[in-house]
UniProtKB/TrEMBL annotation, chain A:
Keywords: ATP-binding, Ligase, Nucleotide-binding, Protein biosynthesis. PANTHER family: GLUTAMYL-TRNA(GLN) AMIDOTRANSFERASE SUBUNIT C, MITOCHONDRIAL. This is Aspartyl/glutamyl-tRNA(Asn/Gln) amidotransferase subunit C. It holds the Pfam family GatC. The keyword ATP-binding applies. Heterotrimer of A, B and C subunits. InterPro entries: Asp/Glu-ADT_sf_sub_c, GatC. It catalyses: L-glutamyl-tRNA(Gln) + L-glutamine + ATP + H2O = L-glutaminyl-tRNA(Gln) + L-glutamate + ADP + phosphate + H(+); L-aspartyl-tRNA(Asn) + L-glutamine + ATP + H2O = L-asparaginyl-tRNA(Asn) + L-glutamate + ADP + phosphate + 2 H(+). Belongs to the GatC family. It comes from the Bacteria. Its EC number is 6.3.5.-. Allows the formation of correctly charged Asn-tRNA(Asn) or Gln-tRNA(Gln) through the transamidation of misacylated Asp-tRNA(Asn) or Glu-tRNA(Gln) in organisms which lack either or both of asparaginyl-tRNA or glutaminyl-tRNA synthetases. The reaction takes place in the presence of glutamine and ATP through an activated phospho-Asp-tRNA(Asn) or phospho-Glu-tRNA(Gln).
TrEMBL record, chain B:
It comes from the Bacteria. SUPFAM superfamilies: Amidase signature (AS) enzymes. Gene3D superfamilies: Amidase signature (AS) domain. This is Glutamyl-tRNA(Gln) amidotransferase subunit A. HAMAP family: GatA (MF_00120). It holds the Pfam family Amidase. PROSITE patterns: AMIDASES (PS00571). InterPro entries: Amidase, Amidase_CS, Amidase_dom, AS_sf, GatA. Allows the formation of correctly charged Gln-tRNA(Gln) through the transamidation of misacylated Glu-tRNA(Gln) in organisms which lack glutaminyl-tRNA synthetase. The reaction takes place in the presence of glutamine and ATP through an activated gamma-phospho-Glu-tRNA(Gln). Heterotrimer of A, B and C subunits. Belongs to the amidase family. GatA subfamily. The active site is at 74 (charge relay system), 149 (charge relay system), 173 (acyl-ester intermediate). It is an enzyme of class 6 (ligase).
Amino acid sequence: MISKEEILHVAELANLKLKDDQVDSFVSQLGKIVSMEDKLSSVDTTNIEPTYNMGDTSTTFREDKGIHTQTREQMFENVPESEDNLIKVPTIVEKGEDE
Amino acid sequence: MNYLNETIDSLHKKLVDKKITSKELTEQTLSGIKEKDEDISAFITVNDAAVDTANTIDESGIKGSLSGIPIAFKDNIVSNGIKTTAASKILYNFMPVYSATVLEKLENAGVINIGKTNMDEFAMGSSTETSFFGNTHNPWNLDSVPGGSSGGSAAAVASGEVVAALGTDTGGSIRQPAAFNGIFGIKPTYGRVSRWGIIAFSSSLDQVGVMSKRVEDSATVLSAMAGHDYHDSTSSEKEVPDYRADLNKDMTGVKIAIPKEFWHEGADPEVIKQVNNAIDTYKKLGATVDEVSLPTLKHAVEVYYILASSEASSNLQRYDGVRYGFRAKDVKNIKDLFVNSRSEGFGDEVKRRIMLGTFALSAGAYDAYFKKAAQVRTIFIQEMGKVLENYDLIMGPSTTSAAFKIGAKIDDPLAMYMNDILTIPANLAGLPAASVPAGLANGMPVGLQIMAKPFNEQAIFNAAYALQEENKFYEKIPTALKGED
């Protein structure tokens, strides 16, 4: 089971805001899914290494050399709002917060 | 253009013999898509500019076997200058400024990108119903789902809109829709194909693959797009075989394992009957078939939904409304911009997966969920590896049922997740796996799943080709297509 408080906490961590009716359906749906996932506790994993990556996991090195990829103009093609060649966003630090 | 009776070879011959130009072929493909998509809705974006590309190819001359041939691409494969959405509102207007390696490689071989196919949002789903752009319909029954997440690619191939299409497979997203649409679809070994330019869902599971009516066409396309890529350090440096040239349908002495757990209690008996018939065909062709056991299979869905959701929650953090995609209006500060853009931009299923993943990775839950699942994955990899020490192939059904009706499972996420139980194992173990048509169950297609040792895609192509040449399923015309017989 998973509580309403836990759902709200996880949503906060994930930068998501749920509507009231959505919170209830998520409590029930995620509760069922997490209960299904709880069955894993019956598997004995003593001394078993976890697998986090697939394939060849050795570190790949490359030369520390700049390469040309996209131009500034191209990178700006998808920016929703811009001004003076900069990406425009709302207030980051509220007035008075840094004083 | 109707591709139902065409192959890459037959098209190549027509192009070389100048019976048709690539420009004509492309124009006819576009008009075929527009006509059939009134019922099927396989595409999100149709690339009308493909005609110009075809013209350029005609002018420089038809070269290799893929030269001048239109192919469709799932809409999570980024395409320079052609809108790429992952079927999400959050990327509804996203215009890539580069192309995925798979697309670039195929374009270098002369392939024409004819358009971008529908899918479940961010490839999260098994029915293509979570797409922001509406449902795709199964060409065997328009009231049924095409499967997913590569449902648009599968329906486009099955309805004869294209000869082949690319899909991606994280937990069965190529094989399940291939099975539901009566076509062939292969997910290669993890690392066989570059993931550069694929919109990430779960990076330790995602792999790009091919779907086509004929086995030999997927073999041709896979050889052209596989191989090491400087941009993806998980892509293998192993040499890429010419799968098409090396096709060999001789099954004499091939050792096949059938895990008893794949003959699931809840499976549709009609599906099982078709799969058993296919296995009998291999026996007749000289293969040996033994029953084996994969005891940890019963935990595959649990492991998968923890790991895939955790990786997704991390991969999808980048969507914040700042640099590209959907941006929420009327926000007061940066936190609101992130939260509102994500909350308005993601659909419910994507939110569920992000929430599940965030939960599994959160303090207090990490060891019991994420780490535990990663450990059970190790056990599972060992079990599969042990079977493949003694056998060439593992076979079983691709799905527990044929295509279900649109709307039947969308409100029950857990029932939807259980769809994936038979396809998840190959992703967890990184193995190559395919679905090949086995027959019809109550008029709807059934797929046989074939898995092999890592980097032995050839063994899968060979076995699938052997079955195809016996049952000739490709001669069957999907029942919901109008004016075809």
